[in-house]
Specification:
InterPro entries: Beta-lactam-related, Beta-lactam/transpept-like, Diverse_Enzym_Activities. By secondary structure, this protein is α+β, with helices and mostly antiparallel strands. Helices cover about 30% and strands about 15% of the residues. The longest helix is centred in the middle third of the chain and has 15 residues. The protein is globular and about 60 Å long.
Length: about 290
């Protein structure tokens, strides 16, 4: 396994005092940090874990899980399992209800990845449903796909299901030889929907080191120690604006997003003023900037 290179902040052009001030600011603000890894030029320049949280411990990533689904989708597209332009109803015909809404017939894989299925709200669904994707297909999009940005858990779940259905194995198992093992990630777990399907939109458990490795992989456009794990073109596309998410492109009446919430959305990545990020509840971040 390739260990991440360790280096002093000053050797990589990072102000060590600034890192210290940041950590002090976290403490002053009362923010309960669990772990932090900062990389520059591919080297770890800061690595901190707050007790009782330890290095190597599995952490629930919440919606940061979505960014791993994006990477998996890029690999699946390269393997010709499906295309971005494929319509969901054509990929899972057995789950499509006879009275499926006209707008649903137009939703593509790309629409799901960029949170633009046409639904005005994050669809509510009953966790006891026999099949979550079938239940989602019974929820009519109020607008045409691509016309409105709505953060949508089941859109991500749909992409995860497509990978599982076409690969014939759990998403977690699909990623082990293609992503986790080459990255040197030995332990990972993913919660399921109770019917053998990984959630996709949440539920992934990884150590902080694995998140750092994903960020570095993204900065290296999918290349890792001479091996192209994810197509470079996919990384470029996934971390570029694919859907406007300002107030004009959200549900009518929604306030204009603040800070780094309205700079556009890629394929399961948020675009920021400086770079992009994967983002999970309670501060699960994988941020990257090519500087």
């Amino acid at each position: 396994m390739h260990e991440l290179r360790q280096s002093a902040p000053s050797a990589e052009g990072v102000d060590a005092a600034a890192v210290g001030h940041f950590l002090d600011a976290l403490a002053t603000a009362g923010i309960e940090a669990h772990s932090l890894m900062l990389l520059r030029h591919g080297a770890v320049v800061a690595d901190a874990h707050w007790a009782p949280y330890e290095a190597g411990q599995l952490n629930l990533l919440y919606s940061l899980s979505k960014s791993f689904v994006s990477v998996a989708a890029g690999i699946a597209v390269q393997e010709n399992r499906f295309r971005l332009t494929d319509r969901i109803v054509d990929l899972v015909p057995d789950l499509v209800p006879p009275d499926v809404a006209d707008n649903w017939r137009l939703v593509t894989v790309r629409d799901c990845l960029r949170m633009a299925t046409g639904h005005l709200d994050d669809p509510a669904f009953h966790l006891a449903a026999d099949d979550w994707l079938a239940a989602f297909l019974r929820m009519p999009p109020e607008q045409a796909p691509g016309s409105v940005f709505t953060y949508n858990q089941l859109a991500t779940y749909t992409v995860a299901r497509l990978i599982q259905e076409t690969a014939g194995e759990r998403l977690l198992d699909y990623l082990r030889p293609r992503l986790f093992e080459p990255l040197g990630v030995d332990t990972a777990a993913w919660l399921t929907d109770g019917h053998g399907h990984d959630l996709g939109f949440s539920g992934l458990h990884l150590p902080t080191d694995a998140i750092a490795r994903l960020g570095q992989l993204l900065l290296q456009r999918g290349e890792w120690h001479g091996r192209q794990l994810v197509p470079a073109g996919w990384i470029e596309e996934a971390t570029s604006p694919q859907m406007p998410n300002d107030g004009a492109h959200r549900r009518p009446g929604v306030e204009e997003p603040t800070f780094d919430w309205g700079h556009g959305y890629g394929y399961q990545f948020w675009l920021c003023r400086n770079g992009f990020r994967g983002d999970g509840a309670f501060g699960q971040f994988c941020g990257a900037a090519g500087v």
